[in-house]
Amino acid sequence: HAGEAGISAKKYLWQTFETLTEAQKKLIKPSKHQLELRDKKLTFAKERQQSQINYLKSLPAYSNLEVKLVKDLGKYEGKKILGRITNHLIEVLEGRSKEDTIPHEFSHYAIDVLKQFGTSKDKSLIDKGIKMFAKDLKRKEGESKEKFRERQEELLVQRIGEFTAGRLMAKDLP
Fold first, then answer.
1. Cα–Cα distances in angstroms (integers) from residue 105 to residues 30, 80, 87, 102, in the given order
2. Number of C-beta neighbours around residue 151 at 10 A
3. 106 contacts 65 by C-beta, under 8 angstroms
4. Which position has the higher pLDDT, 16 or 169?
C-alpha cells in the first residue's frame, strides 16, 4: 500500500536523522523552496498570533495585559518554552507557538486573578474545573500538596486554553 510505504520511509528518515551528530545536522541545509514554505507559514502564524492577541486584549478583563512576541524563551525541563506570564506581561514565542499558547497564557491570568481576588463562588469554580479536567491526575510519590495543586491548575489552564483556541478558530479570526 502506497500510504504505508510513505509512513515507513518517514520513520526510516526520522530514525536516521536522530542518529546524526549535531555537527552533521548542521551540514543539512534546507532548500530554497523549504525556506520559502517555512517563511510563509511563519508569516501566517505571526498574523494568527496577532489576531488572537488583538481579540483577547479587546476584552475588558484583559485590557491591562501586555503581550510581547519574542524570538526565544529558553527551555524548561528540556522542552522549549512557548509562552509564559509574569505579572501583567505575557511573552509568546513569535510564530512558533501552538494555536492554544496565547489563550493558555491569558487563562493563567484569569485563574490567578480569581484565586487571589475572587469570591468563594469563583474559587469553587476553579475547584470544579480541576475536578472535571484533572480528575485522572495522580499525586506523585513524595510530591507536596502544593506542587500537586500546581499541576492540577496547569491542566485546568491547558484545557481552558484549548477550548478558547477552538472558539477563536470558530470566530474565523485571520
1. 33, 15, 11, 5
2. 16
3. yes
4. 169
Opening angle at CA 173, ends 167 and 174, nearest 5: 150
Tell me if 101 sits within 8 A of 92, measured CB to CB. yes
Neighbours of 111 (CB within 10 A): 21
Could you please report the per-residue DSSP string of 44-110? HHHHHHHHHHHHHHTSGGGTT-EEEEES---EETTEE--EEEETTEEEEETTTS-TTHHHHHHHHHH
Mean pLDDT of the chain: 84
- Cell numbers linked to 173: 479570526
Q: Are the C-beta atoms of residues 52 and 65 closer than 8 Å to each other?
A: no
CB 52 within 8 A of CB 168: yes
For residue 11, what are the CA distances in angstroms to 4, 7, 17, 30? 11, 6, 10, 19
pTM of the model: 0.72
